[in-house]
Design goal:
Elements lengths: L26 E12 L2 H8 L8 H14 L1 H4 L10 E9 L4 E12 L4 H19 L7 E11 L6 E2 L2
Antiparallel strand pairs: 1-3, 1-4, 2-3, 4-5
Helix pairs in contact: 2-4
């Protein structure tokens, strides 16, 4: 257990706390996360042909992901509010799933990372796809939510295997 890193959100008494990042250097930080929504081929076709009753599923999910990233600190306890410099959400069809793959990138110049913002963006975009298409396919599955890459800060660059 000596090689196990210490959790930073736990104080000496074992209570959850917000980490004090006041002494950390301001650096450029980026995080990339992904999610996917698996669905029936007919549902994917409906979305790609812009025939969903609720409107443009992909455009709406992209906006929802961006908006969610900006509000991550309101959703995840102990997250710092960040002034994000950029959030991009790319949603592309994947006929092998079949479904949609979502990749969210969050950037900030700050004292703490943006992993949670990228993960939140990908997750909320996937939930929005589900919400907008559930009337025709309640069997959709949201999955594969994970961090793909992060850079910046004291811990440097990390990339998923």
């Amino acid at each position: 257990m000596a090689d196990t890193p210490t959790l930073s959100h736990v104080d000496a008494s074992g209570s959850a706390r917000m980490v004090d990042v006041g002494d950390k250097a301001v650096t450029s930080r980026t995080a990339v996360a992904e999610a996917h929504v698996t669905m029936a081929p007919a549902t994917l076709a409906l979305i790609l042909e812009h025939r969903a009753a609720k409107g443009d599923v992909i455009a709406t999910a992209r906006i929802a992901g961006i908006m969610a990233a900006k509000r991550t600190h309101e959703l995840i306890p102990l997250c710092h509010p960040l002034l994000l410099t950029n959030v991009a959400v790319v949603i592309e069809p994947d006929t092998e799933l079949p479904g949609l793959r979502i990749v969210a990138t969050a950037r900030v110049s700050g004292q703490t990372g943006v992993e949670m913002e990228a993960l939140t963006a990908a997750s909320v975009a996937a939930l929005t796809v589900y919400d907008m298409a559930k009337a025709v396919d309640r069997g959709m599955v949201i999955g594969g939510v994970r961090l793909l890459e992060k850079s910046g800060g004291r811990s440097g660059h990390w990339h998923a295997s």
